[in-house]
Amino acid sequence: DISLEMNESDLIAVIGANGAGKSTLMKTVMGLLKPTTGTIKFNGNEIQGEQTHKIVSMGITLVPEGRRIFPKLSVFENIEMGAYTNKLSKAKFDEKVEEVYSIFPRLKERSKQQGGTLSGGEQQMLALARALMSEPKILMLDEPSLGLAPVIIDEMFDLIKRINKDHKIPILLVEQNAFSALEISNKAYVLETGKIFKEGMSKDLLNDPDIVKAYLGG
Q1: What φ, ψ does residue 201 adopt, rounded to 5°?
Q2: In whole angstroms, what is the distance from residue 13 CA to residue 11 CA?
């Protein structure tokens, strides 16, 4: 019983308690889970039932919960893997790598390090960088702040907002840190046990008494 839509400039937050269906929603969009009913449309075309690698090649990319980088590969090799479905020319690939490094300069400094030796925050940056290499038309982020120190969380949310605004990439953000998610997004959906409990402009939900009480510690 979930119905939502995204436009090209959106940064949409999906918030809710554990078990509300946030990660399930993302996995279903990515074709990792198959819906029993309903439709998922991207650019007007139904994509439910498509294989995950085809959905990625269409332009939908997921940064999964827990980052899921390749720990034994170098930072550069992890980034390289993000372009696997793109078939970029050497010149375009090099240009894309430099663009990613301009967003995440710390990764350039650590390009030869194994991914598994990075800090939690750096690994999250690496997962984001890898996703951007696929030139996403929609970027989905599942709990990007999970397990990060508070100061790194602030940096991460600033980066997400910048990717949306400066690079014109629509973002669907699943996040338990409800306050930060609502602060940086323009629209939001609140899930409760597989259903939309509330939806609206993020700035309005920040002041909604039900949301403040349930999710913002009010």
Answers
A1: -70, 140
A2: 7
* pLDDT tens readout for residues 2-43: 899 999 999 999 999 888 999 999 999 999 999 989 999 999
Strand partners, 63: 141
pTM over 0.85? The answer is: yes
Please tell me the distance from the alpha carbon of residue 134 to that of residue 81, in angstroms, as a whole number.
Answer: 9
For residue 218, the model assigns a pLDDT of: 54
pLDDT digits (tens, 9 = 90+) for 182-196: 999 999 999 998 899
Instruction: Provide the β-strand partners of residue 5.
Output: none
> Contact 188/182 with Cβ under 8 angstroms?
yes
Q: Cβ contacts of residue 49 below 8 Å, gap of 6+?
A: 31, 34
CA angle (148, 32, 89) in 5-degree steps: 80
Cβ–Cβ under 8 Å, residues 141 and 172: yes
Q: What SS3 string covers the chain? A: CCCCCCCCCCEEEEEECCCCCHHHHHHHHCCCCCCCCCCCEECCEECCCCCHHHHHHHCEEEECCCCCCCCCCEHHHHHHHCCCCCCCCHHHHHHHHHHHHHHCHHHHHCCCCEHHHCCHHHHHHHHHHHHHCCCCCEEEEECCCCCCCHHHHHHHHHHHHHHHHHCCCCEEEECCCHHHHHHHCCEEEEEECCEEEEEEEHHHHCCCHHHHHHHCCC
Is the Cβ–Cβ distance between 210 and 204 less than 8 Å? no
